[in-house]
């Protein structure tokens, strides 16, 4: 059911790679709620082509941008303002990639060039998107900027390696720029810390199935899906959440507040009993 929450709003949505992407679901919801927006992804991802299908569905223009390039980001804002006919009301940063994770490098054997790439793509790009918006004065008063994070920013999750550091930085940037943008233009900046979700980036993490099942057993509401995440992010783009800023908002079915759940305890007890038989 649509509520017209984003009627008349103009946005930029990054990171929709294929229909599993969290950004893909957010784009579909934003369209449903009445927004107009541009879609952006790295030129390499563009070549895979799936984003064209989304663009048609959403009647959105695609503007390629490597999120590590300030020049590309400048072009993204300038073209978006041109195509959409005015300044921007919401920005989604849904970008993450770690070459170290892709190549299975353990935390004690990081390739530092790749480490810097992970930070640049997954965290610094968030700062670049906001600093560029500020310099170009590309955002409207009360605009909303959202980045996607993961609880490995607060607690150590084996195999999440340098992405955990990138997420901690991402959340810190949301506070730093949230303060600045709040004072400057009443713009709010938040991160949403999402449950493990089956996507290209998600499933690329070693042991993802275990993360997923563990979180499922621990969370009283179960894991939040990408569709659930889209609904939540839409509320953050809407005028209903104008005073929420500089927050890392857990969207995880309750996972972050549970020590141990009955479901997990039962599973461990069963395994223990089987071992003794
Ligand atoms: N899937 C999960 O379990 C999960 C959980 C919590 C948070 N997140 C976060 O959600 C966000 C979206 O990821 P997803 O799970 O939808 O996976 P996804 O693979 O669909 O999206 C990641 C996107 O980042 C883009 N990207 C990579 N390098 C880029 C660059 N240099 N410039 C521009 N774009 C680039 C990719 O093309 C892709 O579209 C990421 O920040 C991810 O860390 C994912």
Automatic annotation (TrEMBL):
Look up the record and name the pathway of this protein. Answer: Lipid metabolism; fatty acid biosynthesis
Q: Which reaction does it catalyse?
A: a 2,3-saturated acyl-[ACP] + NAD(+) = a (2E)-enoyl-[ACP] + NADH + H(+)
The record places the active site at 150, 160
InterPro entries, alphabetized: Enoyl-ACP_Rdtase_NADH, NAD(P)-bd_dom_sf, SDR_fam
Q: Name one Pfam family in it.
A: adh_short_C2
Root EC class: oxidoreductase
In the record, what terms sit under GO molecular function?
Answer: enoyl-[acyl-carrier-protein] reductase (NADH) activity
Keywords carried by this UniProt record: Fatty acid biosynthesis, Fatty acid metabolism, Lipid biosynthesis, Lipid metabolism, NAD, Oxidoreductase
List the PANTHER family.
ENOYL-[ACYL-CARRIER-PROTEIN] REDUCTASE, ENOYL-[ACYL-CARRIER-PROTEIN] REDUCTASE [NADH], CHLOROPLASTIC
Annotated protein name in UniProt: Enoyl-[acyl-carrier-protein] reductase [NADH]
Species of origin reads Larkinella terrae
Q: What is the lineage of its organism?
A: Bacteria, Pseudomonadati, Bacteroidota, Cytophagia, Cytophagales
């Amino acid at each position: 059911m649509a509520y017209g929450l984003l009627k008349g709003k103009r946005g930029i949505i990054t990171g929709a790679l294929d229909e599993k992407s969290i950004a893909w679901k957010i784009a579909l919801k934003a369209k449903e709620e009445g927004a107009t927006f541009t879609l952006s992804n790295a030129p390499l991802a563009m070549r895979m082509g799936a984003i064209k299908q989304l663009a048609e569905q959403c009647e959105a223009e695609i503007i390629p941008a490597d999120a590590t390039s300030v020049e590309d980001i400048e072009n993204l804002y300038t073209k978006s303002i041109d195509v959409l006919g005015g300044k921007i009301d919401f920005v989604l940063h849904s970008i993450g990639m770690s070459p170290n994770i892709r190549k299975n490098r353990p935390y004690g054997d990081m390739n530092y060039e790749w480490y810097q790439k992970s930070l640049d793509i997954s965290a610094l790009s968030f700062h670049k998107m906001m600093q560029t918006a500020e310099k170009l004065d590309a955002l409207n008063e009360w605009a909303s900027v959202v980045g996607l994070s993961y609880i490995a920013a607060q607690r150590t999750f084996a195999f999440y390696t340098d992405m955990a550091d990138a997420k901690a930085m991402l959340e810190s940037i949301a506070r730093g720029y949230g303060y600045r943008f709040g004072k400057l233009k009443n713009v709010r900046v938040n991160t949403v810390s999402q449950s493990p979700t089956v996507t290209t980036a998600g499933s690329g993490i070693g042991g993802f199935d275990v993360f997923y099942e563990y979180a499922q057993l621990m969370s009283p509401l179960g894991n939040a899906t990408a569709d659930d995440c889209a609904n939540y992010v839409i509320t953050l783009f809407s005028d209903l959440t104008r005073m929420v800023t500089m927050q890392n908002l857990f969207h995880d079915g309750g996972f972050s507040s549970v020590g141990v759940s009955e479901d997990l305890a039962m599973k461990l007890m069963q395994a223990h009993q089987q071992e003794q038989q």
